[in-house]
Amino acid sequence: MISQFNINSFLNFGFFLDSNDTPFTIDESLIDQKKYADCNFSDLIDIGYDILLKSFTKIHSKNLDSENVVPISGGLDSRLVLGFLSKIIDSRNIKTYTYGQKNNIDFVIANRLSQVLGTNHKNFILTVNDYTQKSLESSSNRMNNKVPVFFHPNFEKIDKHFSESTIWSGFLGCLWKGKSLPLKISNSKAQSIDHFVRYNRLRNSELYSYDDNLLITYLNNSLKENSQLSFDDQLSFFQRQSKYTFNYVSFKGQKKVLFPLLEKENIGFWLSIDHESQRQKSKLLISIMERYFPELYRVPNTEIFGAAESDNYFSKKVKKFSFKLRNRLSSFYAGIDPSQISYINFRKSFHNSEKFREIIKQNLSNLSDRKVMGDWFMSRHNNLNWSTKLDIEKIFEDASKTKKKPIHDILNLVSLEIIMKNQ
Questions:
Q1: Structure confidence by residue, pLDDT tens digits, 182-241
Q2: What is the rounded CA–CA span in Å between residue 99 and residue 122?
Q3: Which of 133, 259, 293, 301 is at a distance of 20 to 30 A from 283, taking alpha carbons?
Q4: In the 3-class helix/strand/coil scheme, how is 219-246 assigned residue by residue?
Q5: Could you say which DSSP state residue 73 is in?
């Protein structure tokens, strides 16, 4: 049975805060904030490259008989892994894959990356037909029933090609880029918690309380004063990354998944350099890419709205404007896909596919029948009444009336029901 606390955290963040799972540890022994204080930026580029290359080489030496596969997207994390692996083995012997809608920005850029390096690449195109009740329940199980379903590849297709392969994951690359962290490291627990909550709350949701002392108390108690990690890094590592992201990249059914960025040498280097001037906004990471992987550096990336790092200032601004305009239009018109959508357009599918809509409706009805929200939850959501089936139906009906209304809350509630059903 899922606790009321975890129901609230799931509706806040999309994962269960109160989880005893510790899927990975962080070796702090090599973290030293003073070690690189006197190094100039150019030297750090070479030092960072050498450390990463040695760790990749060491990992590969222990997996010589493996078929190497790198899942790639339009961002920098998987590109970093692909680049370093290509320094060790012939890129023609590396298999890559991407998934999503055929022409979305991640899909297009990933294919461009594979062409540049000449990898053995496969595309897995997602359609609304990939989302059945059976597949959603199975997918949730494979992700440990810990995170929302819908935001995953078609596992059956991946199994068909890569079930015996070794997967090289770019997991934790976001922290090497400073992504999800504030521009300046927080000076106090309260400041770091405030940033974490604001950054990680599910956007455009009406299902959670904005002032929940229980969640804040839990996060505060999780922070350690004597850690080499900043409060911000602690929250990102041990809350979001371990309880959310890790479940998507380490899904069951894979023979072996490697996490090179978790190696203690890499942890030690990236958490020893200055956050604001070197780690934040991917500054050092991008410079390593530019110096040692110029062919990958010149390929556009999703993190700057589909522009390339090598583009001039004006081109980047145009890309950003076009990207945000399309996203804005998509919020009003379900027929327009957002600029960056790695899966399918769920809102459009909700209105256009009777089968998909029926799956949504049935799961919402089942969740209503459970009556799991209770007085504890309702006391924090005075504008909602979850006690009867009619209220859940009303959420469904309201979304059905207009194509302008986002369905994020509906997908999250359906995910909660599927997780409960699987338990």
A1: 999 999 999 999 999 999 988 767 666 545 788 899 999 999 999 999 999 999 999 999
A2: 9
A3: 259
A4: HHHHCCCCCCCCHHHHHHHHHHHHHHHH
A5: -
Cα distances (Å, whole numbers) of residue 153 to 126, 255, 344, 409? 7, 17, 10, 21
Give the phi and the psi of residue 331 in degrees, each rounded to 5.
Answer: -75, -20
Cα–Cα distance measured from residue 186 to residue 194, given in angstroms and rounded to the nearest whole number: 10
Q: What pLDDT sits at residue 218?
A: 93
Structure tokens at 370: 């459970």
Return the bridge partners of 98, or none.
Answer: 123
With left for phi above 0 and alpha for psi between -120 and 50, is residue 165 left, alpha or beta? beta
133: left (phi over 0), alpha (psi -120 to 50) or beta: alpha
Compute the distance between CA of residue 226 and CA of residue 341 in angstroms, rounded to an integer: 40
The CA distance from 397 to 60, in Å, is 53
CA atoms of 422 and 376, how far apart (whole Å): 24
With contact defined as beta carbons under 8 Å apart, do 262 and 24 qualify?
yes
Q: How many residues does the chain have?
A: 423
Comparing 192 with 3, the larger pLDDT belongs to 192
- The answer to whether the beta carbons of residues 391 and 365 sit under 8 Å apart is no
DSSP secondary-structure letter at 23? -
Give the amino acid at 179.
K
418 Cβ contact list (under 8 Å, min separation 6): 136, 137, 140, 149, 363
Percent over 90 (pLDDT), the chain: 58
Per-residue model confidence (pLDDT) at position 209: 53
Amino acid residing at 292: Y
8 Å CB contact between 289 and 76: yes
Give, in order, the Cα–Cα distances in Å from 20 to each of 109, 155, 184, 197, 239: 37, 26, 30, 20, 11
Packing angle, helices 155-162 and 133-142, rounded to 10? 60
Other beta carbons less than 10 A from residue 292's beta carbon:
18
pTM: 0.90
Burial, 302: exposed, middle or buried (Cβ in 10 Å; 0-12, 13-18, 19+)?
buried
The DSSP H or E segment spanning 166 is: strand 166-168
Q: Which of 165, 224, 145, 160 is nearest to 192 (CA)?
A: 224
Residue 2 scores a pLDDT above 90: no
Are the C-beta atoms of 131 and 137 separated by less than 8 Å?
no
